[in-house]
Design goal:
- By secondary structure, this protein is mostly helical.
- The two termini are about 30 Å apart.
- The radius of gyration is 21 Å and the shape is globular.
- It contains 16 helices and no strands.
Length: about 400
């Protein structure tokens, strides 16, 4: 029994470690989107070479939402197993959790960042619940079909765009960028109004990439059912083999994506680059995950504990990142929207992430749940059929098996 609990605890910690790592990539991407209309592309027409190189490098090497989606599916299986063992009403529990997650996402999108991912996760989580009975092989087959189908559609549309349209020039984009700058530097009502206007577009983009997110959910579901972490999470030879084989493939796809999004190819190649990214991102994601587990197997355990602590409060960290970025860049606070170069933005991300790691390690040593996770838990209390609440572990204890489903 103790051996089983040790394996379970190690499995949950590995998931939290990976989630804590992926938070940094999410911060890099979202910070560029929130810092200005040109920041994600390296700045405007007169940006420095350093800023352009920084944006290009982030695009080529970062695909973190797929890792988070994979971990969402993996954690879903762990939570379902725990719910069955405890006798909790799984369907009602999952529905209430999805509703709570959607509500948090809606507030986040309106007040802080319209590019919210939580609402999409909540909706796709319901689909995942309906597909939970799939075998690992069947789940992978569906995932491959979803990714391949979306890649073909994006590639076809992208090639038509290249063939029959002209690139958007800086002069054509300038009026829209100026309106965005004016709105985000305005007061509270100006920022909220801009979020509401941009929200349909952001939701449409999430809907377009929903098949890819669901595919990652299913891949995580298949991996958890096959016991991937239990079998290979501590196997250094296997982890090293994944990195050696798949990292070059993932980086090659990232380079193609960056060329289409950040140059030297013009903006007509954007969708073509993203079609390539859909096909190669799983290789990059797997390489990063295995590389991190391999690295942590040879460094001090304290590093793993710090990352795991941040992974346990990933939802709180995700919302906090948006709050800090909104205070820095919008009229909520300093109003630095479109006033800071990409390289400076990314350097600030390193500082913010470091502060979050330190705070996460301190907080998780003193409380069981971070604020946002506690809100979500209150919405979806885990109760046995008789109605008695399950005993809550003491602050700072190891993650319980019934609490792995943490987002974003």
């Amino acid at each position: 029994m103790r051996e089983r609990e040790a394996v379970r605890s190690g499995r949950v910690q590995d998931v939290d470690v990976l989630r804590g790592f992926a938070l940094f990539g999410i911060l890099l991407v979202n910070a560029q989107l929130m810092a200005g209309p040109y920041t994600a592309f390296g700045g405007g027409p007169h940006a420095t070479g350093v800023d352009r190189a920084a944006a290009w490098a982030v695009t080529a090497t970062t695909n973190v939402y797929q890792l988070f989606s994979f971990l969402f599916g993996y954690s879903f299986v762990l939570q379902e197993r725990s719910a069955r063992e405890s006798g909790s009403p799984s369907a009602a529990h999952h529905l209430r959790r999805a509703a709570g997650l959607f509500g948090l996402g809606l507030v986040h999108a309106v007040l802080l960042f319209p590019g919210d991912i939580l609402m999409t996760y909540a909706a796709l989580g319901l689909i995942l619940y309906g597909l939970r009975g799939l075998s690992p092989r069947a789940a992978l087959r569906v995932a491959v079909c979803l990714v391949a189908g979306l890649a073909v559609l994006l590639l076809g549309y992208g090639l038509l765009t290249v063939a029959f349209t002209e690139p958007v020039t800086p002069a054509q984009y300038a009026p829209e960028a100026a309106r965005s700058v004016s709105a985000y530097r305005g007061g509270f009502l100006s920022v909220i109004g801009t979020h509401l206007r941009e929200l349909p577009t952001a939701l449409g983009a999430n809907l377009m990439y929903a098949p890819d997110m669901l595919a990652a959910f299913l891949a995580g579901l298949a991996a958890a059912k096959a016991g991937l972490v239990e079998r290979h999470g501590r196997d250094r030879r296997w982890l090293r083999g994944v990195v050696v084989r798949w990292l070059p493939v993932g980086l090659a796809g990232g380079v193609v994506t960056a060329c289409g999004a950040n140059g030297p190819l013009d903006n007509r190649w954007f969708l073509v680059g993203h079609a390539v990214s859909l096909l190669t991102a799983p290789a990059l994601t797997a390489s990063y995950a295995c590389g991190l587990l391999l690295l942590l197997s040879v460094v001090r355990p304290a590093a793993a504990r710090v990352l795991a602590a941040s992974g346990r409060m990933a939802l709180t960290h995700y919302l906090t990142q948006s709050l800090v970025l909104a205070l820095v860049f919008t009229g909520y606070g300093f109003g630095l929207y479109d006033r800071v170069g990409t390289a400076v933005v990314l350097a600030g991300c390193v500082m913010l992430y470091g502060a979050q790691l330190a705070f996460g390690a301190w907080l998780m040593g003193r409380v069981r749940y971070a604020p946002a996770e506690l809100v979500l838990r209150r919405v979806t209390p885990a109760r046995c059929p008789g109605g008695s609440a399950r005993r809550s572990p003491s602050p700072g204890s190891a993650p319980a098996a019934d609490e792995p489903l943490r987002v974003p």
